[in-house]
Amino acid sequence: MSTALLVGLGVAALVVLLLLAAAVHVLPEYERGVILRLGRIQPLKGPGLIVIVPVVDRLTRVNLRTQTYDIPPQDIITRDNVTVRVNAVTYFNVIDAIRSVLSIDDYRFGTQQIAQTTLRSILGQTALDDLLTKRDEVNQRLQQVIDSVTDPWGVKVTIVEVKDVILPEGMRRAMARQAESERDRRAKVIHALGEKEAATNLGEAAVVLEAHPAALQLRVLSTLLEVGSEQNSTIAFPIPMEFLRTLDPTRATAAGDGRPGAGPTVSAPAPVAPPPTAPPVAPPATAPPATAPPATAPPDVPPASAAA
């Protein structure tokens, strides 16, 4: 056998091995093979051992496992004009391998871009309070919108989660003050309700003790025991309630009242008739003043003649 023939056989064997390597493929359980034969789609292949026609067929492997994509942090203006920095994560998987190859050039890149733009759009229509307190509703809305866009590509978006919402420093301080004011308000409301309930219970206890004087005396003795057990210098002198009732005129009751602890009967004084009034006395008549007669000058007396 000539050397040229041996070389030819070796080359042919090598070509056969290369063709077999290109024709035979093993697909794992989580992959499917999409085959285009001369540009036309063929039935879906896999998993397991598959054989294609080299040069004629073009095989595309499609991963069916759930994939994740971290949406990078983005500055978003909410509906109430607050700038926040938000990042999120998206979980998606291929449910139709043929559509993921024929409908879009790169379903991974397309899903990532749709997730970013939808995040800005949805959060821009959401108020800050809803973004902080209704996170589940926001996540569900993001998932529905993104999934509706990627569904024609054979891609199912299963979960979209907003991870962090970073607020400006001034907004964080304002929210801290608001939370502190809310805690103070709740504390005051709880304290007021406690005071109201305590006052109601004290009123009911007062009614019960007033109806049972013996219980009141037992309460007084119990209080004295508590004061005496504290070993302090305070000396307590109990004052009978009957003594206090005698000092309070509003506690006086009628003689026939059988209530316990009723004070002595106080009779109202008889009304006193006013003294008779004397008839008015007419003022005495005044006499007109007497007029004195005008004084008359004595007659002129002639001077006495000189004695002769």
Describe this structure in words.
The strands form 3 sheets. This protein has a 3-stranded antiparallel sheet with strand order 3-2-5. Strands 6-7-8 form a 3-stranded antiparallel sheet, covered by helices on one side. A two-stranded antiparallel sheet has the order 1-4. Among the domains are: 19-63, no CATH class; 66-167, 2-Layer Sandwich (Tetrahydropterin Synthase, Chain A); 172-221. Strand 6 and strand 7 form a beta hairpin. 44% of the residues lie in helices and 19% in strands. With 308 residues, the protein is an alpha+beta fold. It is rod-shaped and about 145 Å long. It has 8 helices and 8 strands; from the N terminus they run αβββββββααααβααα. It comes from Georgenia soli. Residues 251-308 are annotated as: Disordered. Residues 22-179 form the Band domain.
Characteristics of this structure?
308 residues, Tetrahydropterin Synthase, Chain A, 3-stranded antiparallel sheet, 8 helices, 8 strands, disordered C terminus
Tell me, briefly, the overall form: rod-shaped
Strand composition percent: 15-25%
Strand order of the largest sheet: 3-2-5
**What is the gyration radius calculated from CA atoms?**
58 Å
Q: Please give the share of residues in helix.
A: 40-55%
Distance between the first and last residues' Cα: 238 Å
* The CATH top-level class label of the domain at 66-167: Alpha Beta
Helices, by number, come to 8
Reported CATH architecture of the domain at 66-167: 2-Layer Sandwich
Please write the string of helix (H) and strand (E) elements.
HEEEEEEEHHHHEHHH
Low-confidence stretches: 254-273, 284-308
Largest sheet: number of strands, sense, barrel closure: 3 strands, antiparallel
Instruction: Classify the fold: give the CATH topology of the domain at 66-167.
Output: Tetrahydropterin Synthase, Chain A
| Number of DSSP E strands | 8
Per CATH, the superfamily of the domain at 66-167 is Band 7 domain
- Based on secondary structure, the structural category is alpha+beta
Mean pLDDT: 78
